[in-house]
Design a protein that fits this description.
Layout (H helix, E strand, L loop, with lengths): L5 E3 L2 E2 L3 H8 L21 H7 L3 E11 L19 H9 L9 E14 L4 E4 L1 H4 L4 E5 L5 E10 L4 E6 L22 E6 L7 E12 L9 E4 L11 E3 L5 E9 L9 E5 H14 L5 E2 L2 E5 L2 H6 L8 E6 L15 E5 L2 E2 L5 H7 L6 E8 L2 E8 L1 E2 H10 L18 E4 L2 E5 L2 H7 L8 E6 L4 H4 L7 E5 L2 E2 L3 H13 L4 E7 L5 E7 L2
Antiparallel strand pairs: 1-13, 2-4, 3-4, 3-6, 4-5, 5-8, 6-7, 7-8, 9-10, 9-12, 10-11, 11-14, 12-13, 13-14, 15-22, 16-17, 17-18, 18-19, 18-20, 20-21, 23-24, 24-25, 25-26, 26-27, 26-28, 28-29
Length: about 500
């Protein structure tokens, strides 16, 4: 997918070249269009007619420094007699009077939808209205109302606006259950692509649970219903007229639809919208752990029969589980009754949980499954602690110290005692305990896992180590047990923890 470009579906009018490219695209005659599948919906006209009034165009303006000069967008060459000539003349010839770089108004177009007709509540994408000085909501009956920003959430790219109807009767739509949508179900998108308001497109759900690396809670619905620039913030409907997604991004090398669009599922969006309406901000649950994926090697080293869950790599100091109820090395497999199949499931289900709620957490610790109960904190408060926390943990007693050795070579690493000299050489914090890696052999199992000199081995197979002899003894014991991999907990010089598995064969 390296040749594709992930773009937000909103459209900036300053990017006039994109619009000019649209105008240059030939319009195919009706007989050249693809014939709809005969087993698809016979018509969506009645559904579209009922929903069009609830979908709005979002128009924003922002004052920025003038773009005359190097890097400015040039006036596109339009065909003679083009109906868009007046538009571009007005835009490019009136971009601010100061040719030396004065300020100018830049407009942005997007989509949205009404969820509360009486209160005038409109939902859209955060990136549609970000940094806007002025926001207007344009309705299908050509009524335009000024909008006030209620709240935004950058993590899910959702924004809530409020308009005053002033006697204007609004049409609202409701959120449906995105969890009930299956791959192959028909969906309808309505929005404002390229400024062409009230555009209806139909397609199917082509995939679920997509992670496009746009945020910590990625769980997108993928659809082939045409989504283009300007569709951002618009609704994705099921065939019952319920909003099951908010259109937010596309993958395209040109910025136009190629049949791969992404929508925020309503199961995630509805809760965010409710919190923004009630508080003007989000209030998410927080567990207070650092996590990493459970790989096949890690699962094998922990004696797990199935590769699943989220591996706890560290505990945030001062967080909800900084009382020992959850420990580094634990694998969380279920949270509040919800299965955690992979690492990215956990942040999402925790964030969707109420602050202060006591929940049951099922985890695997040293090969044994157990259930613990934790009381959730608030993520927004926890982010401040997480930023200050260095992740250093007291790993406890390292066992017997008989027949000490100063250094040892194992699995391609040379390890030594973590004394004052080593701390000074590698800049290792005083509160970190374990065995320091002093050298890593090229092309060794340790090198393959990215282990670097200066890192500290704090645990092997979930047992703490204090001396090079501890390291050798633990590796030897694992080999005797028939283990193929050794699970190491490593600490950086500042205390950041991570787990790696190293093959021992």
């Amino acid at each position: 997918m390296t040749s594709n470009i992930l773009v937000r579906a909103a459209k900036r009018t300053i990017m006039a070249a994109a619009t000019a490219a649209l105008l240059a695209t030939p319009v195919l005659p009706a007989f050249a269009q693809a014939t709809p599948p005969t087993n698809g919906p016979a018509s969506v006209a009645d559904l579209a007619e009922k929903l069009l009034g609830a979908v709005v165009n979002i128009s924003t303006s922002q004052t920025v420094k003038g773009t005359d000069g190097p890097g400015a967008v040039p006036m596109p060459q339009l065909p003679e007699g083009s109906p868009f000539q007046d538009f571009f003349d007005d835009f490019f010839n009136n971009r601010g009077g100061d040719k030396g770089g004065g300020s100018q108004k830049v407009q942005s177009l997007g989509s949205g939808f009404v969820v509360d007709a009486e209160q005038g509540i409109v939902v859209t994408n955060n990136h549609v209205i970000a940094d806007a000085d002025d926001i207007e909501v344009n309705f299908s009956d050509n009524v335009t109302l000024k909008a006030k920003l209620v709240g935004t959430d950058t993590k899910t790219d959702i924004a809530v606006l409020k308009v005053d109807p002033k006697g204007h009767k609004l049409t609202a739509v409701k959120f449906g259950d995105s969890n009930k949508m299956r791959i192959g179900d028909w969906v309808m998108a309505i929005g404002n692509p390229f400024g062409l308001g009230g555009t209806v497109t139909v397609g199917i759900v082509s995939a679920r649970n997509r992670d496009i690396n746009s945020g910590p809670y990625d769980d997108f619905i993928q659809t082939d219903a045409a989504i283009n620039r300007g569709n951002s913030g618009g609704p994705l409907f099921n065939m019952n007229g319920e909003v099951i997604g908010i259109n937010t991004a596309i993958i395209s090398p040109s910025g136009g639809s190629i049949g791969i669009g992404f929508s925020i599922p309503s199961q995630l969006a509805a809760g965010v919208v409710d919190q923004l309406r009630q508080y003007g901000e989000t209030r998410r649950g927080w567990l207070g752990v650092r996590i990493q994926p459970v790989t096949d090697d890690i699962a094998e080293s922990l004696g797990m029969k199935e590769t699943k869950g989220a591996l706890v790599a560290g505990i945030i100091k001062g967080g909800p589980v900084d009382n020992g109820v959850v420990q580094p090395g634990d694998v969380i497999t279920k949270f509040d009754g919800k299965d955690i199949r992979d690492m990215r499931d956990l942040p999402r289900v925790v964030a969707e949980s109420p602050v202060g709620k006591a929940v049951d957490v099922v985890l695997v610790r040293k090969g044994k499954e157990m259930t613990v109960q934790v009381k959730l904190g608030r993520l927004e408060d926890g982010e401040k602690l997480a930023g200050a926390d260095q992740g250093g943990q007291d790993q406890g007693n390292g066992g017997e110290e008989t027949a000490p050795v100063a250094t040892a070579t194992v699995l391609g690493m040379t390890v030594g005692e973590l004394n004052d000299e080593a701390r000074s050489k590698f800049g290792i914090a005083a509160d970190i305990s374990g065995v320091v890696v002093t050298d890593v052999a090229k092309d060794s199992p340790a090198a393959e896992r990215g282990i670097q000199p200066g890192e500290v081995i704090t645990e092997i197979a979930q047992e703490s180590v204090k001396t090079p002899k501890d390291v050798m003894d633990r590796i030897g014991a694992l080999k005797e047990q028939g283990r193929k991999n050794a699970l190491l907990m490593l600490s950086s010089k500042s205390g950041e923890l991570r787990f790696v598995t190293i093959r021992m064969d």
